[in-house]
Amino acid sequence: MTKPKVLISDALSPAAVQIFRDRGVEVDFQPNLGKDKDKLAEIIGNYDGLAIRSATKATAKILEKAARLKVIGRAGIGVDNVEIPAATAKGIIVMNTPFGNSITTAEHAITLMLALAREIPQADASTQAGKWEKNRFMGVEITGKVLGVVGCGNIGSIVADRALGLRMKVIAFDPFLSPERAKDIGVEKVDLDDLLRRADFITLHTPLTEKTKNIIDAAAIAKMKKGVRLINCARRRSRRRAGGGRCAQRQAHCRRRLRRLR
Ligand SMILES: O=C(O)[C@H](O)COP(=O)(O)O
């Protein structure tokens, strides 16, 4: 019997490669291939499985050439880099690993929130520049402040849990959050407008879908409190520098100067 053949086209740990091999799978490990879509299209027809992270874009055009492909495994959460309808039309199963990095991401969001509250990046830059501007970086306390969690699934609910431990009041917008679950987690379920109006800090934990794309636009920002702090450890849409197309990118970035955007 011939071994199934899997292509790993993004950077995965050598341990992952070994797991495949231990199970009798022939692995082709090409960690930089995700960036080369022409080469990927050229060779994808040779594989039964494709293991990716976010760099590989499994577009309809690529999948067209994937004559024997049966499964795409996403080592990570977001599957916005896979054209699911095109995969489904070809009978290709798409799987992700939704819990692998939930705690990491939630802790990252809390870290950014505290960094924003205490103005750590600015204070660090100032100190590195040889200054000691103690009075310039007063910061704010987070105790008693309102945290608005947009998307209260795996990651959002861990963020809520940690924020409650830091004595914040947590409100959440998530159409899939049942009142029972909200009560269990200890958050108040609200609609998006309510969250935008009330929150002192807002943290985003939605997948990138047609419904969540640009969820925080100029109109949403206009509804926020003055001086609100916004944390995004989810996705961002941005223009590709060449070609003018749009691509989804993972970005953990935070913004404090929302006033300027109003
Ligand atoms: O969706 C995810 O799991 C995260 O954004 C991490 O993705 P990456 O590390 O593969 O870019």
TrEMBL record:
<comment type="similarity">
    <text>Belongs to the D-isomer specific 2-hydroxyacid dehydrogenase family.</text>
</comment>
<dbReference type="Pfam" id="PF02826">
    <property type="entry name" value="2-Hacid_dh_C"/>
</dbReference>
<keyword id="KW-0520">NAD</keyword>
<protein>
    <submittedName>
        <fullName>D-3-phosphoglycerate dehydrogenase</fullName>
    </submittedName>
</protein>
<dbReference type="InterPro" id="IPR029752">
    <property type="entry name" value="D-isomer_DH_CS1"/>
</dbReference>
<keyword id="KW-0560">Oxidoreductase</keyword>
<dbReference type="InterPro" id="IPR029753">
    <property type="entry name" value="D-isomer_DH_CS"/>
</dbReference>
<dbReference type="InterPro" id="IPR006140">
    <property type="entry name" value="D-isomer_DH_NAD-bd"/>
</dbReference>
<feature type="domain" description="D-isomer specific 2-hydroxyacid dehydrogenase NAD-binding">
    <location>
        <begin position="110"/>
        <end position="235"/>
    </location>
</feature>
<dbReference type="InterPro" id="IPR036291">
    <property type="entry name" value="NAD(P)-bd_dom_sf"/>
</dbReference>
